[in-house]
Amino acid sequence: MRTVLGHRNIFLPRSPDVTTHSELIDPSSRCGLFQKLMYQTSHLPNGMTVASAQMPHMNSVAVGIWVATGGRYEAAEDNGAAHFIEHMLFKGTRKRSAAQISQAVEGIGGYINAFTSEEATCFYARASHDKLDELVDVLADMFLHSKFDSVELEKERQVIKEEVAMYQDQPQQHVQELLSALCWPDQPLGRPLTGTLQGLDGLTQARLLSYYRQNYVSGSTLVTASGRVDHEGLVKSLGRLASKIPSGARRTPVAADPAQVRPRSILCTKEVEQTQMALGIRTCSRHDDRRFALRLLNTILGENMSSRLFQTVREERGLAYSIYSATSSFDDAGMLNISAGLDAERLAEVMKVVKAQLRLLTEKAPTSSELRRARDYVIGQMDLSLEGTESQMNWVGETLLGYGRVLDPSEAKSRMLSVTAAEIRGVAREFFRPERMNLAVVGPRKDSRAVQKLVESPL
Known about the structure:
By secondary structure, this protein is α+β, with helices and mostly antiparallel strands. It has helices at 81-88, 98-106, 132-145, 150-168, 171-183, 205-215, 231-237, 239-244, 291-303, 308-316, 347-363, 368-385, 389-403, 409-418, 421-431, 448-456, and strands spanning 23-25, 38-43, 49-54, 60-67, 111-116, 121-128, 221-227, 264-269, 275-282, 320-329, 334-342, 437-443. Helix 9 (291-303) packs across helix 12, helix 9 (291-303) crosses helix 15 and helix 11 crosses helix 15.
C-alpha cells in the first residue's frame, strides 16, 4: 500500500455540472496516441459513478474503486483516518483473510495496491483482461465487508507508526511535510496524511468506523477501469457493489485558508550530512486558468535536467546534487515547490541563485525556443504517462473526481499550445511575491533567524 504525499495537478478546464446519463468520448480524431481508446461514463441511480477507458489493443485491465475522501476531509482529531482505513481494508473481510486478499489477485497473475492523497483514496488492481470479474469481486469485498478487527487494527496501528517514523527519518520526506504545515498552518491541507505518532493513538476502532461510514457512501464512490474492458459489462459486474453500498452524498472538504501576509520559515535541526531545503510558493487551484501557464513556467524553472535551476545550480555552479521544482494543485489552492539537497554552508548561496531565477522570470518572458521546448516536454510527458492501463485508470479517476467528468487529454494539450510567453511572465509576477513564500529546512544548522532572513530577502 502506498501513500501519495503530494498530489500532482491535472491542468484541465473546470467541468460543467455532472449529468445523470452515460457519456461517451472519442479522442481518436485529435490525438494519435489514443486512436483505439474510448472514455465512457455511467452515473448510477444511487449516485455512484462508473467510468472506463477502453483500450482494446491491450491485454490487461486495471480497475480501481475511488472514494472522494483524504487528508483534507479530516477534522484535527481524525488526522490520519483516511490513510488508516486504507490499510484496514487489506486486513481481512468476512470471507477472506489478509493473506487471501493478496492471494486472490496475485494468484491469477495480478497486482493489488492502494493510495491515499489529500482529496482521494483509491483501491486498485491489475491483471489479464479476462480476470476483470475476479478483480472486481476482491475489491468490492474489501470495500463492503472489511471487518476492522480490533486485533488487526492494533497491529496496523504499529505498522503505520513505523511508516511515520520512516518518513521522519528521511530528510527529503520530512522537509516536505514541514513545508506543507508551513504553507497551510492549522488546517487539514497542512497535516501529514499518515497522521502523527501521538494522534494515531486516538484513532480508535469506533472513530475509524464512524469516518468510514460517513465517507464510504454512494455519492463519494467512483469505479474506474481501463484496458480491454467492455463498459456495459463492467457496469453489470458492479451491480452487487452498487446495490450494497450505503446511500449518501459526497462531502465537501475543509476549505484552505489563503491568509498569508509575510514570508514564513521553519528550521528542523538534525545531524545529517546533507541539508534539505524546500521553498513553497502559494499559487492557484486546479480550476484556475493560470495553471496552464504555471505548468509551463515550472518546466522552464526546474522540472527537468534542461531547466534553469538544474543548469545554474548544479551544472554551472555545482552547488547541489539535486534540485527541482514541482507543482501541486487542489480544489481551491496550489503550490509551486522548489527543493534541493545541499551542503549546509551553501544554503544562502543556493537561495540567492534560486531567487535570481525567480526574479528573471518576472522581468523577462521566456524565449520562443524555450517556450517551444517546454510545450513539447509537457505534451510528450503526458503521452508517455498515459500509455499504460494503470495510468489511464488514474487519469479517469482523478479527472472525474477533480472536475466531474472524464477529460480528453487533447483538451489539455490544446490549452498548453495556446499559452504565450507573456502569460508565463504574468503568472511569475503574480505568484513570485515574498508574502507567498515559505521555506522549510532540515539540517545541522541552528540559526532559525538566519533561515527566516533568507526567505525575507527580496528577489
